[in-house]
Amino acid sequence: MTSTVTPSTSRATFAIGDERAARRVVDLLNESFEEGQAAVAAFERPDGTWDVSLHFSEAPDQASIRGLVALAAGGDIAQHITFDIVEAKDWVKASLEDLVPVPAGRFIVHGRHDRARVPPNKLGIEIEAALAFGTGHHGTTRGCLLLLGQVLRSRQPIRVLDLGTGTGVLAIAAAKALRRRVLASDIDPVSVHVARDNAGLNGAGNLVEAICATGFSAPQFAIRGPFDLVLANILANPLRQMATPMAAHLAPSASVIFSGLLPHQAQGVIAAYRARGLILRRHLIVEGWSSLLMQRAM
Fold it and tell me: Which segments of the chain have a pLDDT < 70?
């Protein structure tokens, strides 16, 4: 395992009331900094409010940050910005300290240090913490794996896509269970690199083709489709926006597994895909996150 020690960074954090306001602030902040000056992120809480954070390699002008936020979200939000320092840390080592093998039906996700703890009747997926989302220790990943197990009990998909692959957990699970090739895509080149490494680590390097792509724009989607099974652990808004191109790349009776959804967001995704001819087969809630199994009509 390679150590990944991040340098100390300056951080600004604040909370904001809804998604529209959060998007407005994030867009303005992203437009206000040169590439590499700041990293901006926003995450939704279970109560519907949003946490916004900015990381800087050098100490920022606090008054300027407050002024930008005030423009987009108002002075009250700007006055409640918290500035602090995130100390240097080996995040990989720290994250592994709390990771234990995670069972999800027939699958079990584990780190290298827990290889010996994989039961013989489980399909092990070895994933180390890395600079990409998805060690298997998240309700969205577990929900997807549980639904994947359900699909595989009744059918053996031939053409499989993992959209938004992250560390490659779902692609590796499908490839190892089916012993078939899986196309895995992500918009983040770091994630693509990590997914390829993890596929090789799990003996599936010849089965998982990981590509960097936005949506369904890459030629590999047309070449490898139409898909019998799609796994898409992303976020609610991108899933809704991709409903039309997703449907265009599905084979008749294709199964689609969605996650990355808070329970109150699930109905909007269901409605978007129901309008494209998909039927809801199952809705799981794992650790406060929704995962959906939908199927295209014949």
Answer: 1-8, 35-36, 46, 87-100, 128-137
- Distance (Å, rounded) from C-alpha 158 to C-alpha 163? 16
- Per-residue DSSP letter, 122: S
Exposed / middle / buried, residue 28 (Cβ in 10 Å: 0-12, 13-18, 19+)? middle
Distance (Å, whole) CA 13 – CA 18: 15
Cα dihedral: 231, 236, 241, 242 (round 10): 0
Query: 99-296: same fold as 5-90?
Result: no
Amino acid occupying residue 47? D
- Please name the fold of domain 99-296: Rossmann fold (3.40.50)
Nearest CA-CA partner of 125 in 90, 77, 197, 173: 173
pTM over 0.70, yes/no: no
- Strand order across the 289-296 sheet: 208-212, 182-186, 160-163, 227-233, 250-261, 289-296, 278-286
Environment class of 83 (CB within 10 Å of its CB; exposed 0-12, middle 13-18, buried 19+): middle
CA 214 – CA 244 distance, rounded (Å): 15
* Fold exhibited by the domain 5-90: Alpha-Beta Plaits (3.30.70)
Task: Decide: 137 and 286 in contact? Cβ < 8 Å.
Answer: no
The domain limits of the chain are 5-90, 99-296
Instruction: From 267, 268, 270, 289, select the one nearest 280 (Cα to Cα).
Output: 270
pLDDT digits (tens, 9 = 90+) for 35-89: 667 888 887 776 778 889 888 878 889 999 999 999 988 999 999 999 998 766 5
7, burial (CB in 10 Å: exposed 0-12, middle 13-18, buried 19+)? exposed
Eight-class DSSP state of 116: G
